[in-house]
Predict the 3D structure of the following.
Amino acid sequence: MPEIDPAEMAANAGEYQDLDGEPWNGLFVRSQVQVTFDSPQATGHRMTPFEVAKIFGKVALRKIVEDGGFPIVRSPDEPAQTFRRQRNLLGLTIRQVALASGIPENAVIAAETSGKLNPVRSLERLAQQLGLDEHRIGLEQDLGGASALGTRLKRSMGRNDTFSVVLTPSTVLRLAEAAWVIAKQAAFEELEPLKAGSELRVRPQAEPLWPGPAWKQGYELAQRTRELFGLDNEEPVPSLRSLLDERNGIPLLAIEMGQKVAGATLANSRHRGIVVNTVGLNKNVWMRRTAAAHELCHFLWDSDENLDRLRVDSYDLLQRGFHPNVADPIEQRANAFAVEFLAPRRGVLGLVKAVKTREDALSLISQHYGISVSAAGYHLDNANHGNQALYGEAHISVQPSDEWQAAENFGLDFFPMPSSPYARRGRFAQLVAREVDAGRLTPDSGALLLAVSLEEFKNGIAGLLQLDLRHH
């Protein structure tokens, strides 16, 4: 039988019959063990012909037509073996996975029991939480980047030195989920790229450390990056979230990571992404912007070797600026990069040239460029302004305005599917909604990808399609 094209199959659904001999409705349904024609009584995951062909290949369409189903379990030990292996790579117990993910412990046990049949939605949800491709469960998937990332996350749980912080089981799982989102977003970007010529697409290009002070290189890389993004050497960045995620396709995810973690840069296979904390000091959007800009330096300019698939940065590291006691020159470079990228020195000098006190200078820099007072202080002292009145100590508290809050939080706070995790909002969510709207994904798949109920997805998709995240 010749190869079947999914578009033709969808367009000519009436020419096929389901397993009950009834006219086919154009959808398939996936269980733990196979994909077959959809039927009214089916309880599995409904999928379009496009999805089946993309995930399992066009051969799956032919097998379903010829044999009534396409088997997706290649071994009686799958997917249990893959789940066990990935959980162990992450260094987690079954109970820790259950508590941190909200998946019942008995469901995790069942998923890891060879030969046990489980609801496919439960398996898919667990796979996402563990950073696995939920479509490959049962197929003895090569863990690849997920394996390397899992090993790195495991090593970070119990480690506390200059360059990393101790990760709790909850944070490990959230970072694994973030890595899954990053890989999925990259796959969707290939299907629906940003409009050619309308926006820049900035991609990583490793830059080795130069001889001399690392902070100086950080300044120069920040200026190069501003040029890549089309920013001049004075203007503020109104919304870092919009600039990176929505306008340039650089994943910027927000998740809860405990009280001591500021941000992280993840490398999942060939895909990279930035993750920032939403709790602790990062409740202040200016701190979150600084953390994200620090990670942007890692994202764009660090080699895979430097990232080691995961780089987690603490608040303590960011708050020390580019002080020599930050022993790692890579971190010195990223700290300097962050503040120069958000608040370029030329713009800072222009702002403070007529200011009489340090307090007024710090307040003006913070409010204009959206950085914390401490970051503004470090930068002011390194801006060579020559005004002695602007040196010394200042004890002031300046908080972000409602406008700054809205600029960075809009896609989080005004999301039309309120139960969806923060990590899945932003451009990722809009890409999912567009694929469903185009008929390439089912609402079932959309709900699974955004971790909401089918009802919530159907009620919220119109609002998500209309939500303009790129200009807030």
In short: The first helix runs from residue 6 to 11.
